[in-house]
UniProtKB/TrEMBL annotation:
One of its GO terms (molecular function) is ATP hydrolysis activity. InterPro entries: AAA+_ATPase, ABC_transp_ATP-bind, ABC_transporter-like_ATP-bd, ABC_transporter-like_CS, Oligopep_ABC_C, P-loop_NTPase. It comes from Salinibacterium xinjiangense. Transmembrane segments: none annotated. This is Peptide/nickel transport system ATP-binding protein. CDD domains: ABC_NikE_OppD_transporters. The keyword Transport applies.
Length: 585
């Protein structure tokens, strides 16, 4: 017998009962070949005031499970079985009108992709204010403005009043993510679904946001369904952990206990591949720190970092090899609109200097908005510097034009932070990866197709995806497509802007291993931009720490990690999630 639908489904509240119960959930996607199951019999229970983390690789069904709760699945997907009880009411039986009383007010949502979930033609302040008004938390005018500023401040934007006037494209990826987090928390919901809510954030702001979530849980009894690929965060922030693999739950239990003593082979591989754990092993080991068989279903063996001998050779090269990239006193000033016919200068990059020896990796790290991505765009000659010089293989980029610029871009390829924004939704995956080959007239169609299939294999994507489109892929899969496209021309220099931030740990480990192999084989040079210091320790030879447009500390990776001089660097290292948790392999 079906459950009766209440006039206001959320009026019902059962003392001591779970807030959320998912029972035998089945979700399938409609394809030309019929219905394809994506979630197959998932069950989980979330109590009031509790945080539950769902972890697993891209495509495992984590996000599909979360979106099923608020029935915001893509048009080709549908719930084919099971129930989703929220405060005792089966949400799968509610009409769209009834669900509107639940979404936002009772169940908040922080989506994974910040750029595609903020309207590009509306100011940030207007979007936050509209959410508050729609959910009955403010009245239009000064009340909505004041509360919107408070929401953004809670989400970690200290200059919230000024940021209210700006548009999404004027924010860094991490700042856009913070806006979405603020919107999700703005109505103080009973349940917050957070889908990779901190994947684009530096570790210090990540800590601020997650501390705020923990405070909200403690004070108001808000429950959190936390989707993440970061096992350090899962262990540090969630009481319970659910591990998903190929649409099923393969292991579940208390977080620390499960991660210290994983039982399922897949969970063991996840724990062994976690960057923060590998970083700890590196600190205390002079040999390879992979420490476990990380062979995936695709047969790829993953060795997370090089041996001590390899790292010593690379350290020597960073001191003796000629520079592939030299940045000298680089400055970039933007004019920010501040009212009618007025603009104010904003210095995004302030007298930055560094060099990258040929065949080595230099990492730029720092908080969101520190200027890291602006440096990347300047190096790629996508923006022009206000002053300073960028020299690539002895040639000043200021003099590079026309055919010379095209040749330079063949040798220097980017991987941007936002995989969805950098992929044309009208191109299928094969056409997307082949785009640089066509642009530079490399090979005929048959050769280009073969190269595309080779690249899909290199980044651990099934060849069947070649004819699919970006909206049919998970966030991690889209990121891998972006990496494959960057590798298509076999460049000498690769600028990677948060290139592994959206990937689960196993695929992240494979990509880092792939980058290491390509660097060794082809003598590649990497400028690696990231907020994840655990990853930095695994891949970088040298580190430049940026803050407010300036480099505040620059040294070899071992020096920065073992003997940081600046307090800001010490704070970044202390904020690495899960670094202090002792977990089993």
């Amino acid at each position: 017998m079906s459950q009766p639908i209440l006039t206001d489904p959320m009026d019902q509240h059962r003392i001591g009962a779970p807030l959320l119960e998912i029972r035998d959930l089945q979700v399938a996607f409609a394809t030309q070949g019929g219905m394809v199951p994506a979630v197959n019999g998932v069950s989980l229970t979330l109590l009031q005031g509790e945080t539950l983390a769902i972890v697993g690789e891209s495509g495992s069904g984590k996000t599909t499970t979360a979106l099923s709760v608020i029935k915001l699945l893509p048009g080709s997907a549908q719930i084919t079985g099971g129930s989703i009880l929220f405060d005792g009411v089966d949400l799968t039986t509610l009409s769209e009108k009834e669900l509107q009383k639940v979404r936002g007010k009772q169940i908040g949502f922080v989506p994974q992709d910040p750029m595609s979930n903020l309207n590009p033609v509306w100011r940030i302040g207007f979007q936050v204010e509209e959410t508050l008004v729609a959910n009955g938390k403010a009245t239009r005018g000064q009340d909505a403005r004041a509360k919107a500023i408070a929401v953004l401040e809670q989400a970690g934007l200290s200059d919230a009043a000024e940021r209210m006037r700006q548009y999404p494209h004027q924010f860094s990826g991490g700042m856009r993510q913070r806006v979405l987090i603020g919107i999700g928390l703005s109505s103080t919901p009973k349940l917050l679904i957070a889908d990779e809510p901190t994947s684009a954030l530096d570790v210090t702001v990540q800590r601020v946001i997650l501390d705020h979530l923990a405070k909200l849980t403690a004070e108001s009894g808000t429950s959190v369904l936390f989707i993440t690929h970061d096992l350090g965060l899962a262990a540090e922030r969630a009481q319970k952990l659910v591990v998903m693999y190929k649409g099923r739950v393969v292991e579940a239990g208390p977080s620390i206990e499960l991660l210290q003593n994983p039982q399922h082979p897949y969970t063991k591989r996840l724990v062994a591949a976690a960057p923060s754990l590998a970083s700890q092993r590196l600190q205390h080991s002079s040999t390879s720190v992979s420490g476990a068989d990380l062979r995936g279903d695709d047969g790829v063996d993953v060795d997370l970092v090089a041996t001590a001998e390899d790292r010593a050779a690379r350290a020597k090269k960073s001191l003796t090899a000629p520079p592939a990239v030299q940045v000298e006193n680089l400055t970039k000033v933007f004019q920010i609109s501040s009212g009618k016919l007025r603009s104010e200068p904003f210095t995004a990059v302030d007298s930055v200097s560094f060099s990258i020896a040929k065949g080595t990796t230099t990492a730029l790290v720092g908080e969101s908005g520190s200027g890291k991505s602006t440096v990347a765009r300047l190096v790629l000659k996508l923006d022009e510097p206000t002053s300073g010089r960028i020299v690539v293989d002895g040639r000043d980029l200021a003099d590079t034009r026309g055919k010379d610029l095209l040749a330079l871009r063949r040798r220097m390829q980017p991987v941007f932070q936002d995989p969805f924004g950098s992929l044309d939704p009208l191109y299928n995956i094969g056409a997307t990866i082949a785009e640089p080959l066509r642009a530079h007239r490399v090979g005929d169609r048959h050769e280009q197709r073969a190269r595309v299939l080779e690249l899909l294999d290199q980044v651990s994507l099934p060849k069947q995806l070649v004819d699919r489109y970006p909206n049919e892929l998970s966030g991690g899969q889209r990121q891998r497509v972006a990496i494959a496209r960057a590798l298509a021309l076999k460049p000498d220099i690769v600028v990677l802007d948060e290139a592994v931030s959206a990937l689960d740990v196993l695929v992240q480990a494979q990509i880092l291993a792939l980058l290491g192999e390509l660097q060794s084989e082809l003598d590649l040079t990497y400028l690696f931009i990231t907020h994840d210091l655990a990853v930095v320790r695994l891949i970088a030879d040298n580190v430049c720490v940026m803050r407010k447009g300036k480099i505040v500390e620059a040294a070899s990776t071992s020096e920065v990690f073992d003997n940081p001089r600046e307090q800001y660097t010490q704070e970044l290292l202390a904020a690495i999630p899960g670094a202090g948790i002792k977990l089993g392999a």
